[in-house]
Amino acid sequence: MKPLTLIYWVRAVLGLVIGILCGLHVFYFAIGAQLGDIYTLLTGLSFALLFYMATYYIVKLRFFGRVEKVSKLVTQGIGIYFFAWIVSWTLFVTLLMPSLSVGIYYGTTSDLFEDEPFWVAALNSDGRIIQNVTTKSGSLKMALLPPGTYTLVLTGIPEGYTAANKSLTLSWLEFPHLRFNVNVNVTQLS
Predict the structure, then answer these.
(1) For residue 135, what are the β-bridge partners?
(2) Could you give the CA distance from residue 177 to residue 140 in angstroms, rounded to a whole number?
(3) For 105, left (φ over 0), alpha (ψ -120 to 50), or beta?
(4) How many CA atoms lie within 13 A of 141 on its CB side?
(5) DSSP 157
(6) Sign of CA dihedral 81, 83, 84, 85
(7) Averaged over 166-186, what is the pLDDT?
(8) pLDDT (tens digit, 9 = 90+) per residue, 83-126?
(9) Which pLDDT score is estimated for 64?
(10) Alpha-carbon span 172 to 188, nearest angstrom
């Protein structure tokens, strides 16, 4: 195999490995709101850049006299390295993130007010909305919620009906189902 081809494929594989290592960093150290934080992105990017610079010095020691341009030792495989890094990091974290399915029930049926839109908002412990999902059916899926404790609020219920807010704590690799029971508020209907 030619030196530049070997450098290209080594950097492609290293990009995948560094992406998985960045995902493990998120898995073990980023909790709750830190997951979408700019510092998590900058930490991962710094990690990727550090390892890319390390590959340059390793490649330089191994292939210095074997390529026609020394600048090729820096640029060969840079695109595939960062592409493989970001794709593997994103995919790894996405597969580990908890997702939540929410059912909205009136009595025993989930076909509650089919023409009415419902909103389910996930609020973190600070009261900030992390995710807001709309549905016109009795069920929906909230995906990619960072691990943490949330209060889920159901809104858009017609006047005269109530549903209690729900609290839950999500961990990595968890896929719970939460049920909102909508009840008739007798005092408002009479």
Answers:
(1) 118
(2) 10
(3) beta
(4) 5
(5) P
(6) positive
(7) 78
(8) 999 999 989 888 877 777 887 777 655 555 666 677 788 887 77
(9) 80
(10) 41
- Sign of the dihedral defined by the CA atoms of residues 51, 53, 54, 59, in that order: positive
Whole-angstrom Cα distance, residue 117 to residue 108? 19
Do the beta carbons of residue 160 and residue 181 sit within 8 Å? no
- pTM of the entire predicted model: 0.67
With contact defined as beta carbons under 8 Å apart, do 56 and 62 qualify? no
Q: What is the mean pLDDT of the chain?
A: 80
Residue, of 52 and 131, whose pLDDT is higher? 52
Angle between helices 78-96 and 3-29 (to 10 degrees): 30
Alpha carbon distance 169, 181 (integer Å): 19
Q: Tokens 């195999």 identify what position?
A: 1
106: its two tokens: 């009136």
Q: Helix, strand, or coil here: 66?
A: coil
Name the 3-class secondary structure at 7: helix
Residue indicated by tokens 């949330």: 150
Buried residues in 123-161 as b, exposed as e (16+ CB within 10 A): bbeeeeebbebebeebebebeebbbbebebbbeebeeee
Span 100-189: which CATH code?
2.60.40.10
pLDDT at residue 134 greater than cutoff 60? yes
Q: Report d(CA 158, CA 153) in Å as an integer.
A: 15
End-to-end CA distance of the chain: 83
Residue spans of the domains in the chain: they are 3-96, 100-189
Rg (CA), the chain: 24
